[in-house]
Amino acid sequence: MEKVTRSRVLVATVVAVILVIGIAAAAGAVPLFASGDSTDRPDDPSTEETVGYVEGYWYDDELDADDGADAVIDDEDDLEEVIYRSMARVEEIRELTFEEEVPVDVISREEFQEDHDDMFVELEEDEELQQNVTYEALFMVDSETDAEDEFEAMYGDSVGGYYDPATNEIVLVSDSPDEPEVDEVILGHELLHALQDQHFDLASYDRETIDQDAAKNGLIEGDAVTVEQAYDQHCDAEWECLPSAQPPENQVGDLNWGIYLLLMHPYEAGPEYVDSLLEGDDWSAVDDAYDDAPASSSDVIHTDEDREAGDVTVDDDSSDSWEQLETDDGLANETVGEAGMVSMLGSDAMDPLRSSVIEETDLLTADLQGVDYDQPYTDGWAGDELVTYVDSDVTDTDTVSTSEEAGYVWETEWTSEEDADEFADGYTQLLELNDAQVLNESEGVYSVDDGYQGAYALDIDGESVTIVRGPSVDDLNAIEDGVVAEDLEVSDDPDEPTDGDAGTDDDTGSDDADEESSDADDADDASEASDADNDSIPGFAASSAVVALAVAVLAARHKR
């Protein structure tokens, strides 16, 4: 399954699909890479060997299209001139030459919507099940929603352009293809992907997990965004460029913020990673990184550390009634990685109507210009594996029609016991925010009735945190033997102490428990009163303002 989604992301993220909702670049100062001195230009330049020169056009040439009233280019010859000059400008910034021309095609949005399904690998039934289980485990897609539909919704109306490595072609999607508006800086971003592909073969990287994909994209998109930012600054400072294109309408109404944050990681954390490799105007260390690309999203997030993730393997400790799901590609397993976990715990931070484990003030950078993926709950990540389980009596995945009927074991490793405890605390908060009922606190057993239905067991063992989910409490030990005590006492009433809980016969302990219960009731009453007045209280309005500003910045900064 997830291989299909990763194939999608290869098209949509590595290939730099431009989302109307905003592909965000990292905030902060951007190096303005020096342009060459025209007096040093060779007398006989060539496209293949001269940096900053393509098919007769230098990077600093002026074109008739620069003087237009808008960014519309309705003449094929004018578009060709713009493309060649943009190629030369990308070369000048990136200090590499194109090895061959890059075709650019303009299609209508209707044509894209009709044909874009062909860009994505079609899911087999077992792959679709694994995909749904994975994204339900991340609390991004509930058991009644198909993850495939969420990805489709993310791209269908939002794509402005992409580079397709299968055809070595850039496709611009326009609402008026006969008179397309060309955003020159976005074109430069896409051309940089073509340049990368010609020199470093983007299709050669392993992308078998969410984390691998985020890691490789961190380098690839970090490189592209850094070039894009420098390109934009040159247009403002010293180059004649096309007039700015009109920004598309904001389309963030039904955005899946969890998936959004996951896909945005390379664009947000990648530029800082690339900046850590740059030495002034020298790109050689960035070039070398393509031979030793980041292994995990943690490598991209923590540029000042030398991290090596452990090899986490989920041993099959299930009973005869459950088994690990197998797909055509082997075991249905997944590595989520640090970026995926941040996206999980921060997925509700941008929704003013919901509470979030990572709040928006912590998730966004201090200037609200981007997303900070270095978070205390997850910065101790050292590896993870999530394996999907199905009823062993089910021979056809048609019978297991939804992720609600499946299960999973998610084993995570951390650099210290403190880091493991911190992640477990964040995950427990996530369960509570999704209305989980505490069935047995000491055993870490929970139940969710709506949305992310099922029974959950949270087991902390030193530097390891294991999460097991099954359709019912009885299924937990059948999926992972020993994850809960055999004689587990489960209460249907969260206020009723269960075996091993805090309630005791000791008078002091009982008083403390009563006091805590009273405090909790007071807090619940205050919360309910607060919810009832949310439309008028200043705190709610302030939160909405922060979210609105963040969305506006992410959506408008680069006119996507």
From TrEMBL:
Transmembrane segments: none
Acidic residues bias spans: 313-327, 486-534
Chain residue ranges for the region called Disordered: 294-327, 486-538
Top-rank lineage group of the source organism: Archaea
Name listed for the protein in its UniProt record: PGF-CTERM protein
Organism: Natronorubrum sediminis
